[in-house]
Design goal:
Chain B is an alpha+beta fold. Chain B has five helices and five strands. Chain C folds into two domains: 112 residues, Uridine Diphospho-n-acetylenolpyruvylglucosamine Reductase, domain 3 (2-Layer Sandwich); 101 residues, CO dehydrogenase flavoprotein, C-terminal domain (Enolase-like, domain 1). In chain C, the strands form three sheets. A five-stranded antiparallel β-sheet of chain C has the order 3-4-7-5-6. A four-stranded antiparallel β-sheet of chain C has the order 8-9-10-11, with helices on both faces. Chain C has a two-stranded parallel ribbon with strand order 1-2. Chain C starts with a helix and ends with a helix. The chains are: A alpha+beta, B alpha+beta, C alpha+beta.
């Protein structure tokens, strides 16, 4: 195991959700069946931009087996038919316009999927085609067609003092973030060198193997959803607002989620399903195909232009950045992503001055939203590529250049924000060592293959911003415990990590703790399973709940034993007083009789708001990602083979080190795929590979020859020193590979993916 | 349209005599008729391999197999791996090596590994990677799965 | 049966191609399921060459001792085609009849100058050269593929740049000299394309290696315009046809003694 540090949790444990998952017993939302359940299918727009003139559903409704059909005419009657994070412009169902190929136009509930599919074909829609804008450039051009006629509901994201946050500032611009420190233009003007470079980032899809799947049942006043959504409480709030129903009569039930990566965060098709279930008067299941998933959400593509100043001896001075993200047709989580991409564009470095403008552009393509890494991926690709470019232009080794400019532990990321809490230089040194960077000599052109090495340090703030969570821990008379928290298990290991935190606090063996089922009636509120906050935020709430339970247990025991609680210690469901051991179960049975008594501990955590911090709260922890890559480039074909990938990430103190490693390795391979081949490609407004057969994701055969994850433990604010690590692996891979390609063949690729054709074109252009 | 077809198929060592419509998909038969819900449907077009089951020892995607094709065959699903409550060595090594995260691809992956180890008693890294090319995992990055497979190869040999 | 089924009918073996097309909406209402016809799954020795039944699976091409002995490059390459599931269920006949430029067996058949046997609706048996692929379903049911004598044939495959291009190369060898050959290209055109190599006189191994670059350049230039799609442009494809052909010609020719 590659671990550098000291965690409390040394022993390797079997994941608590493991036995279910290896036997096929694990239940996902995909497996939820309700008696009398109908099956839904969605009619989607075949046009990237069109006015909906008329929809005739009569033939569909007449088909035997069809129970209900809904269209925008049903959606518009809702109290508030729009959703989106901060800015709510996405309708439950298209009302007057289709804004991308795949936009939801109508939905059918029928006795089975086949009937529902047939019914879709019987819905007649008359469209008036509109000119689409399908790229950032097209959308921003003078006189470009607008996606929206009127301002959307909502408000810009509230950030710290002096930080710009605008809603719909210009035509086809959804939102804008602006951050400044010092006077960037003045500092640039005085710098020895100024380098301006532009980078293009591609769109990829989450491609979680469990499709988007939900079951809705509306019975009288009660709305109940079985949902694959990562954020049950956020969803509950949205359903409440959209349907004008009280939140305490809306229950969201979560199961194991078959992969999320941010794709299942925030509202997607759940409101549509509730609308359909209301009309149908029976439970309805909507399971999208993976093809439809490709048309539901992507990671933001974008253009990042960095103007960076540096002294002649390699000290960074100022950076002016313009970040243009392609937000697609609807808001989804673009408002948040814009903020985070813009804020993270400065990387792990020290700057005299910064000026950043980041905004999301509306285009007639699939909406973009939260994807693991959340702006940190786009920002790291641009920043860490340019860092290397600048180093080379100055004739400085990229390692030395980085080392000279890195933020030190204890230095604030930006004024008002928290200090960097990882040893950025130390981590880089470890990666450099394992990669064999020092021994590497760039191979002379030998035949048609050349090898090169590249480094990168990605970084993002972790744990969300001003985040909060609540938890309960119930301890049963027998000394078994149930953890009630709503960090949903998406494969990140929340089940085991949170149970382990509770077990350690309660001094119980891990196999005495169970992670309880999640539903919004019974489970305490959580802000959402994202931003790598499960361990550090929800885990803190769990630890506090367990601590509260301990306090109650000792108070109870003290009362029974006639002493003070502080004379007692809890250990493996026994209370120790000096040399005497008093098992708890008999005490409980004696005192309560009947069904006994449960100690219910309560805990919560709120990261404090702070208007002096640029984002409105100091970042909870920092999540660097150190990457070393070695590639081999075929000069005649442009094909890039990744020989080595060494990636480091900081878990703070691992609660479950094996899970940390798994999260890093999984993220790295997603990033590797996007670097070399994975992309949702568009030709104008038409997606050309929006089907699993053509949308290639990494397979086992794509692994580099040598692949190593290194888990550092520099300490963090979470339970027992933990941080979060789920997103780290995404951050530095693309830039490290670009840097390695440059080292190998002397060409710089500023656009991903690095397909053979692109690499070859760059090689030919340079000679 | 042809009338319903009689098929005899052994699933997890139990023989079923069934009467199926010609276009009944095997994955639906498993999940809906036999309540063997360990078989998960991901892409529904034979790309991801999540619905992999073993037919006469060979890995096959249940989502693109008609029920009539199973006539006269012996099928193993994930539910059939453990015997009398004892986990199969592959299931044990998957647990020991944390060779899963969200778990959606896991049943198909484990069955694919079972077929691999019946073809190769001690497969090397390259052989494992090529065989598992048939199973997409979006979560793990495959490395820990491969380690579990190598451990399982030893365990199965014993 | 096929005639009765009319337009909505299709032959089905492994079903890899057919089921996929049905899922995407092709109106196939009847399938004629061939798996029970075991004689279509045989591999037999023709005294030098091989006859492969149309229901032979990719997995059998990879593992059959006779194939490995006669055409080792074919068996080795087939280890990598698609994935294990598709190799176990998919048949070489189904692969050819799908007429998909991304599929591999047609390329092998063309490079080897194989012959395809069809059973027509009139009951007659016809043999068609693999080089003349196009409109195959008109011939009836594909029953087998005959590969010529291995002593005279050298095969090489290059799938390293798929899905931009895949390449199969077959060289005819007599008395230790290269007397002709064929190049089959996949992924780069709307259908698999094969052309004969412009070899007008027997070449020794050394001569063939030396002329590999020119042969490759001329051959690539003589091909029709490749497609431009999401995987690659026509220009890149034409360039890579030349590069891969040159490399594979040189490597294959070098091994001829």
């Amino acid at each position: 195991m590659n671990e550098v540090g000291t965690s409390l949790f040394r022993s390797r444990v079997t994941a608590l959700d493991g036995p279910d998952k290896v036997t096929g017993a694990a239940r996902f939302t995909f497996d939820v069946i309700l008696r009398g359940m109908l099956h839904a299918k969605v009619l989607r727009s075949p046009h990237p931009h069109a006015r909906i003139v008329a929809i005739d559903t009569s033939r569909a409704e007449a088909l035997p087996g069809v129970v209900a059909v809904v269209t925008g005419a049903d959606a518009i009657k809702l109290p508030d038919p729009y959703y989106g994070v901060a800015i709510r412009d996405q309708p439950v169902l298209a009302i007057d316009r289709a804004r991308y190929i795949g936009d939801m136009i109508a939905a059918v509930a029928a006795v089975d999927e086949e009937t529902a599919y047939r019914a879709l074909a019987l819905i007649d829609v008359r469209y008036d085609l509109l000119l689409p804008v399908t790229t950032i450039e097209e959308a921003l051009a003078d006189g470009a067609p607008l996606l929206f006629d009127a301002p959307a509901a909502g408000a810009p994201i509230k950030l710290g003092d002096g930080v710009t946050s605008l809603k719909e500032p210009r035509p086809n611009v959804l939102c804008e973030f602006g951050y400044a420190k010092g006077d960037a233009d003045a500092v640039l003007a005085k710098s020895d060198h100024i380098f301006e470079d532009r980078f293009r980032f591609s769109r990829i899809n989450h491609f979680h193997l469990e499709p988007y799947v939900n079951v809705a049942r509306v019975t009288g006043e009660q709305i109940e959803l079985w949902s694959c959504n990562q954020d049950p409480f956020v969803l509950r709030g949205d359903i409440s607002r959209i349907f004008g129903r009280p939140a305490n009569n809306i229950r969201i039930n979560a199961s194991y989620i078959g992969g999320g990566f941010g794709g299942k965060s925030f509202c997607k098709m759940e409101p549509l399903l509730v609308l359909l279930a209301m009309k149908a008067g029976r439970p309805v299941r909507l399971c999208l195909s993976l093809d439809e998933g490709l048309l539901t959400l992507t990671k933001h593509a974008g253009i990042l232009t960095l103007k960076t100043g540096v002294t002649k001896d390699g000290r960074l001075t100022a950076r002016r950045s313009e970040v243009q993200l392609d937000g697609g047709a609807y808001s989804d989580a673009s408002a948040l992503t814009v903020v985070k991409t813009g804020y993270r564009i400065t990387g792990p470095y020290r700057w005299d001055a910064v000026a950043t403008r980041a905004y999301a552009v509306r285009t007639n393509t699939v909406p973009a939203g939260s994807f693991r890494g959340f702006g940190g991926t786009q920002a790291s690709f641009a920043s860490e590529s340019q860092i290397d470019m600048i180093a080379r232009r100055l004739g400085i080794d990229p390692y030395d250049f980085r080392r000279k400019n890195l933020l030190a532990v204890g230095e604030p990321f930006q004024p008002g924000d928290s200090a960097v809490d990882s040893d950025l230089g130390g981590g880089l040194d470890e990666i450099v060592e394992r990669l064999g960077y020092r021994q590497h000599r760039r191979s002379a052109a030998q035949g048609h293959k050349a090898r090169g090495m590249g480094l990168s340090i990605g970084i993002k703030d972790g744990g969300g911003t001003a985040n909060h969570a609540q938890a309960l821990v119930k301890v049963l008379p027998s000394g078994r415990a149930i953890v009630n928290a709503a960090a949903v298990e998406i494969g990140q290991g929340a089940t085991t990590a949170l149970s382990r935190i509770a077990a350690e606090t309660l001094k119980l063996p891990l196999d005495c703790v169970r992670y309880g089922a999640i539903d919004t009636d019974h489970t305490p509120l959580d802000n959402g399973t994202h931003a790598s906050c499960g361990t550090a935020v929800t885990g803190t709430a769990v630890m506090r709940a367990a601590t509260d339970a301990c306090g109650q247990i000792l108070e109870f025991a003290a009362e029974q034993l006639g002493c003070r609680a502080d004379e007692l210690q809890l250990d493996n469901w026994t209370v120790r007083r000096g040399n005497h051991a008093h098992p708890l179960e008999p005490m409980i049975v004696e005192h309560f009789g009947g069904a006994g008594f449960e100690f219910i501990g309560r805990g919560m955590v709120k990261v404090p708001n702070d208007p002096r911090a640029p984002l409105g709260a100091a970042s909870l922890f920092w999540m660097p990602s150190w990457v070393g890559a070695e590639v081999e480039v075929d000069r005649e074909t442009g094909k890039v083979r990744v020989l080595q990938l060494v990636v480091g990430a900081d878990s703070g103190r691992s609660v479950n080190s094996v899970a940390c490693r798994g999260q890093v390795e999984g993220a790295v391979l997603q990033a590797l795929g996007q670097s070399l081949f994975e992309e949702l490609r568009y030709q104008g407004g038409e997606p050309v590979n929006a089907t699993p057969l053509d949308y290639r994701v990494p397979h086992a055969a794509d692994l580099p020859d040598h692949y190593e994850a290194v888990i550092f433990e520099y300490g963090g604010p979470g339970p027992f020193g933990a941080k979060g690590i789920g997103e780290a692996g995404m951050l530095g891979v693309a830039s490290a590979i670009a840097n390695a390609i440059h080292d190998a063949v002397g060409v710089r690729l500023t656009e991903i993916p690095f397909t053979p054709e692109r690499v070859l074109a760059a090689i030919e252009a340079s000679s | 349209m042809t009338a319903d077809i009689d098929i005899t198929v052994t699933i997890n060592r139990r023989t079923y005599r069934l009467n199926v419509p010609p276009n009944r998909i095997f994955a639906d038969l498993l999940r809906e008729d036999l309540l063997l819900t360990g078989c998960k449907i991901g892409c529904d077009q034979a790309v991801c391999g999540a619905c992999t089951v073993l037919v006469d020892g060979l890995p096959v995607t249940a989502c693109t197999t008609f029920a009539f094709e199973l006539d006269g065959t012996a099928v193993t699903t994930i539910e059939g791996l453990s015997e009398e409550g004892m986990l199969h060595p592959i299931q044990r090594t998957f647990l020991e090596h944390s060779a899963f995260q969200c778990g959606f691809c896991t049943p198909g992956m484990i069955l694919s590994v079972k077929a691999l180890l019946e073809h190769y008693s001690d497969p090397d890294e390259t052989t494992i990677r090529q065989w598992l090319d048939a199973n997409i995992c979006r979560c793990t990055g495959y490395q820990m799965i491969i380690e579990a497979v190598r451990a399982a190869a030893k365990a199965v040999a014993e | 049966m096929r005639a009765e089924a009319g337009d909505g009918g299709a032959f089905m073996a492994g079903g890899i191609d057919i089921v996929n097309r049905m899922k995407f909406g092709e109106p196939i209402t009847e399938v004629i399921y061939l798996v029970g016809l075991t004689e279509l799954g045989a591999i037999s020795d023709t005294g030098g060459g091989l006859r492969l039944g149309s229901l032979v699976t990719h997995h059998e091409i990879e593992t059959c001792a006779l194939v490995r002995a006669r055409f080792p490059e074919l068996a080795q390459t087939w280890h990598d085609v698609a994935n294990i599931r598709i190799r176990c269920k998919g048949t070489i006949g189904g692969n050819i009849m799908a007429a998909d430029p991304n599929y591999d067996f047609a390329l092998a058949a063309m490079a080897a100058e194989a012959h395809l046997d069809f059973l027509g609706q009139d009951g007659a048996v016809r043999s068609v050269s693999a080089m003349a692929l196009g409109g195959l379903s008109a011939y009836g049911l594909l029953t087998g593929i005959t590969l010529p004598s291995a002593a005279r044939l050298r095969l090489a495959f290059d799938r390293s740049l798929r899905p931009a291009i895949t390449l199969a190369l077959g060289l005819d060898v007599e008395d230790g000299k290269v007397i002709g050959g064929r190049v089959a290209i996949g992924c780069a055109f709307p259908a698999p394309v094969s052309l004969c190599l412009p070899i007008s006189e027997p070449l020794s191994s050394r001569e063939a290696v030396e002329r590999a670059a020119i042969l490759a350049r001329d051959h690539a230039a003589s091909l029709p315009e490749p497609v431009t799609n999401q995987h690659a442009s026509a220009r890149y494809r034409r360039q890579m046809i030349e590069v891969l052909l040159r490399r594979n010609l040189a490597t294959l020719a070098e091994r001829i003694t």
